[in-house]
Amino acid sequence: KGTLKDKIAVAVKMCKEALSQEQKLTFLQEAKILKQYDHFNIFKLIGVCTQRQPIYIIMEPVPGGDFLSFLRKEMLLLGDKNCIHRDLAARNCLGGNNVLKISDFGMSRQEDGGVYSSSGLKQIPIKWTAPEALNYGRYRSESGAWSFGILLWETFSLGVCPYPGMTNQQAQEQVERGYWVSASQQCPEDVYKTM
């Protein structure tokens, strides 16, 4: 959190000074992607401070915190723009005052063909990642549909981490075998089928 000179409250994301140049560029990738969006339900970028260390990304503040409910239209908007978020989860959906914003575009990629290939599984949210990305490192804009299903599961499980009782490796092995998280008691059958 922070305040601009004219007393406007802002959200501030800081890049640690000890990062390599490549890591700093990766950090700034989030701002580059956010700059392209001016949508009510996506975090608004206010600015970037790069002249001194540490580097800051300045965004609009969103009151509240993790929001365990989500509307499908935001995912369609990202898909229409060939944006591959790669970290869609309840922890990255912030809301308040009847507003929901998708945040944390740090792992996102904007791809003309709607496909992004990654080498390795470094720092990806295994339990939220689509099987084709886990198995082959290929993300498509449609990969967000899998993550959206997991986000719905989180919502109707009252914020429980997906694949409870399993490590990331165990969850990945189960997904490779075709397993999908079981419905919680709070989840209506039609919602579970949508997942």
Automatic annotation (TrEMBL):
<keyword id="KW-0808">Transferase</keyword>
<dbReference type="InterPro" id="IPR011009">
    <property type="entry name" value="Kinase-like_dom_sf"/>
</dbReference>
<dbReference type="InterPro" id="IPR000719">
    <property type="entry name" value="Prot_kinase_dom"/>
</dbReference>
<dbReference type="GO" id="GO:0004713">
    <property type="term" value="F:protein tyrosine kinase activity"/>
</dbReference>
<keyword id="KW-0547">Nucleotide-binding</keyword>
<dbReference type="InterPro" id="IPR001245">
    <property type="entry name" value="Ser-Thr/Tyr_kinase_cat_dom"/>
</dbReference>
<feature type="domain" description="Protein kinase">
    <location>
        <begin position="1"/>
        <end position="195"/>
    </location>
</feature>
<dbReference type="InterPro" id="IPR020635">
    <property type="entry name" value="Tyr_kinase_cat_dom"/>
</dbReference>
<dbReference type="InterPro" id="IPR050198">
    <property type="entry name" value="Non-receptor_tyrosine_kinases"/>
</dbReference>
<dbReference type="GO" id="GO:0005524">
    <property type="term" value="F:ATP binding"/>
</dbReference>
<keyword id="KW-0067">ATP-binding</keyword>
<dbReference type="Pfam" id="PF07714">
    <property type="entry name" value="PK_Tyr_Ser-Thr"/>
</dbReference>
<keyword id="KW-0418">Kinase</keyword>
<protein>
    <recommendedName>
        <fullName>Protein kinase domain-containing protein</fullName>
    </recommendedName>
</protein>
